[in-house]
Amino acid sequence: MKSINIQSCSKTDKGRIRSNNEDSLYCNDTLKIFIIADGMGGHSAGEIASKIAINTISNFLAQKLEKIDPEEFHMNEFLLESLSIANSKILEECINNQSLKGMGTTAVIVLVSKKGNLYIANIGDSRAYLIDNKIEKISRLTKDHTLVEELYGQGVISTIEKKKHPLRHIITQALGLTPNIRPFINELKFSVNEYLLLCSDGLTEMLTDEEILMILNDVNYLSVEAKCNGLVETANTKGGVDNISVILLKNIGYN
User: Fold this and answer.
1) Residue 41 has what pLDDT?
2) Cα 98 to chain center, whole Å?
3) Domains in the chain with CATH codes
4) CB 244 within 8 A of CB 12
5) Cβ-contact 175, 91 below 8 angstroms
6) Rounded to whole angstroms, what are the CA distances from 38 to 61, 161, 215?
7) Phi-psi sector, 13: left (phi>0), alpha (psi -120 to 50), beta
8) What does the alpha-carbon distance between residue 230 and residue 234 come to, in Å, rounded to a whole number?
9) What stretches of 40-100 show up as alpha helix (H) in DSSP?
10) What is the pLDDT of residue 74?
C-alpha cells in the first residue's frame, strides 16, 4: 500500500510584546503527529501547562501509533483520550503546586494516516486550516472555544463585531480549566498539493484568513519553510502582540 509523503516545517516565536514564549509545539514526521499548545496563566504557568500537554499527548499517541496499524482503529478515540489524560495531568499539577493554580492551555492536534486522511482535534482557540492553492481557498477545520464564538453562534453579534470584540480572548474551554472537556473533532481527506496549517492565536490575531492565504500563495515564498517563516515574520511586522506558533504541512504525493 502506498503511503503519503509530507513536507513539513514548524516555527515558534515569542512575538514583539511578550517577554517569554508560552507556546509549545511537537512534530513527528515519521508517525505524522503534529501538535500546538498555547499556554495561559501567570508566572510562566502557561508555559508549564503547554509543555505538559505536548509531552502527555505526544507520548500517548506515539505509543499507540507505534504498536498498531492505525488504519484499523479509531484515530479520533486516540485524540480524545490523549486530551483527557493531558487535562487530568494539568489539573493534578495545579493541585500539587498552588502557585500554578489557574494555568491552562489550548491544543490543536493533527494525525495524518498513511492513506492521507486527516484526524483533527482542538480545544481552545488554536486552529487548523486546509489550503488549496490551486483554487486559492482556505478552510478552517477547527472550532474556537471562546465567548465571542458562542455569542456569534447565538446571533448576538455579527461577523464584523466578532473580529474586534473586546471579549474575543475569553476562552470557554481549555486543558486544565475543568475536569470535563468537550474537544472539537474533524476528519477529512488530505489531497496532493494541499497545505495544512496549525497555528496559535498569535498568528490569527494579526492576520485574517485571507491574509494567510495570500502569504501561502505568494511567489516570494516558494518552499514550505519559506511560507512558514513568512507567516511568522508578517505577524510580527503587523504587531506581534502574542506568541506565534505555526506548523505547515504539504502533501507532495504517495510512495
Assistant:
1) 81
2) 28
3) 4-254 (3.60.40.10)
4) yes
5) no
6) 19, 24, 23
7) beta
8) 6
9) 45-67, 75-96
10) 84
Transcribe 169-211 into DSSP letters. Answer: T-BS--BTT-S----EEEEEE--TT-EEEEE-HHHHTTS-HHH
Q: Which helix (H) or strand (E) holds 26?
A: strand 23-28
pLDDT tier, 43 (very low <50, low <70, confident <90, very high otherwise) = low
Q: How far apart are the first and last CA of the chain?
A: 9
Cβ pair 147, 139 in contact under 8 A: no
CB distance 84 to 110 below 8 Å:
no
Contact assessment for residue 62 and residue 86, using Cβ atoms and an 8 Å cutoff:
no
Looking at residue 230, its amino acid is G
Residues 6 or more apart whose Cβ sits within 8 Å of residue 185? 76, 79, 80, 119, 120, 121
Q: How far apart, in whole angstroms, are the C-alpha atoms of residue 104 and residue 177?
A: 6
pLDDT more than 90, % of the chain: 80
Cell of 50: 503547554
* Rounded Cα distance, 36 and 175, in Å: 13
